[in-house]
């Protein structure tokens, strides 16, 4: 958002990773970085009960890319889930 405001850009931007992953891949990467076994399976009817139609965004929404950000020259510090989660886990471990 800082990038968009500083460049005085307007319009619609997707604020997401340029390399999206599904929940299973995300969970696998997180488990690798934390050295744990993570098995997180939430039935979609629970998501629908809690989130209504917004559950589609988590359980099977469209693949969204930050095309406009990239076109405008935005550079991601941690473009992949592996890089982002690795940095996040490292920062959390160092703070404890």
Provide the structure class.
mainly alpha
Proportion of residues in β-strands: under 5%
* Main beta-sheet strand count, sense and barrel state: none
Helix content percent band? 40-55%
Shape: flat
Overall pLDDT:
88
Give the oligomeric state: single chain
Number of helices: 6
Q: How many DSSP E strands?
A: 0
What's the Cα radius of gyration? 16 Å
Describe it for me?
It is a single chain. The longest helix is centred in the last third of the chain and has 15 residues, at 81-95. The two termini are 29 Å apart. The model has no long low-confidence stretch (mean pLDDT 88). The protein has helices at residues 2-6, 23-34, 44-51, 55-59, 67-71, 81-95. Helix 2 runs parallel beside helix 6 (81-95). It contains 6 helices and no strands. The radius of gyration is 16 Å and the shape is flat. The protein is mostly helical.
Please sum up the structure shown.
By secondary structure, the chain is mainly α. It has helices at residues 2-6, 23-34, 44-51, 55-59, 67-71, 81-95.
Name the descriptors.
flat, mainly alpha, 96 residues, 0% strand
Give the SSE map.
Blueprint: H1 2-6, H2 23-34, H3 44-51, H4 55-59, H5 67-71, H6 81-95
């Amino acid at each position: 958002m800082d990038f968009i405001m500083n460049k005085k850009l307007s319009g619609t931007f997707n604020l997401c990773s340029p390399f999206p992953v599904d929940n299973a891949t995300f969970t696998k990467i997180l488990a690798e970085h934390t050295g744990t076994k993570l098995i997180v399976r939430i039935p979609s009817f629970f998501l629908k009960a809690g989130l209504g139609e917004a559950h589609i965004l988590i359980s099977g929404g469209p693949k969204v890319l930050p095309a406009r950000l990239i076109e405008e020259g935005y550079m991601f510090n941690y473009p992949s889930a592996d890089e982002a989660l690795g940095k996040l886990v490292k920062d959390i471990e160092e703070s404890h």
